[in-house]
Amino acid sequence: MYRISDQQVDFILADIKKHGIRIESLQQNLLDHICIIIEQNLEQHDDFEKFYREIIKTFYKEELKEIEEEAIFLVKSKGPFLLLSRLQFFLLLFITFIGPYITYDLVWFFNEGHGSVLPVEVWSGTMVFATFPLLVLLVLYFTPEKLDPLIPRKSKILLGIRPFIKIIPPTEKYASYQQ
After folding, report:
1. 5 and 39 in contact (C-beta within 8 Å)?
2. Dist CA 157 CA 167 (whole Å)
């Protein structure tokens, strides 16, 4: 098991601060997690800085300060909420608006149809009533960035009480919650 020196702890803390983490408790938590990972996984003869650089990359996607931004966002959000990615949100909408029609067809097919072909009455109802919501979802999902889509790529969607749906664009980076 590797023992981290005081100089290495100071190096890690300085690097965390340099990467934009300003909240002291978050700095200490990150420092603690990183030190534990290093002590458990680094061998005595391995390169500390190289191992540290590899470990720190696992904490973020683009920048380390994303952790602080997300923490501030979660602390300042009011009420129960659900934070979804864009893809998760569209899957939820698809299941909500198109799922009942598909479920109806499957229930009919396995209960009343006994494996036979769906009659026109069942199939046409699904096609008529599911087409419009499906087209709306497809237009919203596939709108190119140059046309300023309603829900931009890489954005997050917050489902809560007030507001019910809040779209958080990636450029905003939760800035409205840091004030």
Report:
1. no
2. 5
pTM of the model: 0.55
What is the 3 state secondary structure string of the chain? CCCCCHHHHHHHHHHHHHCCCCCHHHHHHHHHHHHHHHHHHCCCCCCHHHHHHHHHHHHCCCCCHHHHHHHHHHHHCCCCCEEEEHHHHHHHHHHHHCHHHHHHHHHHHHHCCCCCCCCHHHHHHHHHHHHHHHHHHHHHHHCCHHHCCCCCCCCEEEECCCCCEEEECCCCCCHHHCC
157 φ/ψ angles, rounded to the nearest 5 degrees: -120, 125
Domain boundaries, the chain: 6-70, 82-168
Q: Is the dihedral of CA 153, 155, 156, 158 positive or negative?
A: negative
- pLDDT tens for each residue of 24-75: 999 999 999 999 999 999 888 888 899 999 999 888 888 888 888 878 877 7
Q: What is the residue-averaged pLDDT of the chain?
A: 84
Instruction: Answer whether residue 79 shows pLDDT above 60.
Output: yes
